[in-house]
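Incident review: delayed structure delivery

Summary: a single-chain prediction request sat in the queue longer than the usual turnaround. Root cause was a stuck worker, restarted by the on-call engineer. No data loss occurred. The affected request and its eventual output are reproduced below so the record is complete for anyone auditing the incident later.

Affected input:
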Amino acid sequence: MIITDLIIIICLMLSAFFSGMEIAFVSSNKIYLEIEKQQSGISAKLLSFITKNPSRFIATMLVGNNISLVIYGIFMGDRILQMMFPESLQGLSISIKIILIQTLISTIIILITAEFLPKVIFQQFSNTFMKVFAFPTAIFYFIFSPVTSMIMSISDLILKKFFSVKGDQVQFTFSKIELGNYIEEQLESTKDLDNVDSEIQIFQNALDFSEVKAREAMVPRTEIVAAENSESMTEMKKLFTSSGLSKIPVYTETIDNIQGYVHAFEMFKKPNNLQKILLPVAYIPETMKISEVLKLLTKQRKSIAVVLDEYGGTSGIITVEDIIEELFGEIEDEHDNVAHYERQLESNLFEFSARLEVDYINQNYGISLPENEFYETLGGLIVHLKEEIPPKGTKIKLENFELEIKEVSSTKIERVFLKINHENKFLHL
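Output delivered after worker restart:
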């Protein structure tokens, strides 16, 4: 009796293992597996071995699971008879009622202990279990190899004969979703975001790259350093020197009429006026995605695009450098003025530049400010709520946040204090 119970328990555990590993392999992040396979050590080699052929992996798990279930069914049926119907052991026949009870009890036990629960658990921790159980899986690979090979040969023959396909043709590719999930896992597991691998950050930026619009990456109208086409060469040289820029847009009458731009290198040619050294710019709408902007600039061999609003006015400018920064992060040189400051004053109090993007603040400080397609920056959020540029000292309570305007100009918000107050749950304007 003890031996019977032991066999039943072992069969349940093996069935749970095979069912769990099957769903773990299907649910696992393929990028994670490939990275783990490139590591040194026996675990990486075993993982590489068992995942080399996905069809064989699934077949092995199915063979192991079915063998476990068959053995379990034989011994479990006898055990139920011993416990519930001992008198039937004396007879030669068993009633339909007893068979139905045996089937019901056995099925319920197997579904709970060896199917449902293992699959839920293994699915939640699929990457970990694939790595941890690589060794026992490899052992079963060898044990069931003859049976698995025979089954796969028969399956391949049937598939080739009747469906004209090969059963082992599996496209082992990575999807955008898998890459995104892997990056999220890495970012969540890293408490110090400053120590995140640059490759991980680039992948993160690359995933978002296709969805970023020109208005999100542009230099806004209020920050454009530009010159009128009637500007003298002397004044132009001073503007290049004071700004530290290598490219300066040139406009006629207003900045809404940008004609082109001047490169600092052209000043060495000692031109008489700006028209002789004026280089062309591209014109794009705010809603254009920066991936398309990059293609356009590359095709037209231009380095600056003027971003137009819905009325045809200048909303901002975007350069190739701005687009590259969306992929590789901010590229600062000795002439860049770092105005987008940020600092944590207290555990629940922060000081931010209004030009900082809301999603950047949320990601780097673990804050959950509301995000919306109508704004990108912290200043844009405030203007969206108030429908105006509020004066200095204005306080805005939003959900569990309190925003205070600390510095403002006539055209934009400069500096904001953000306080987290968990007692505040409602919006006050």
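Verification: Residues 176-209 form one domain.
Action items: add queue-age alerting; document worker restart procedure.
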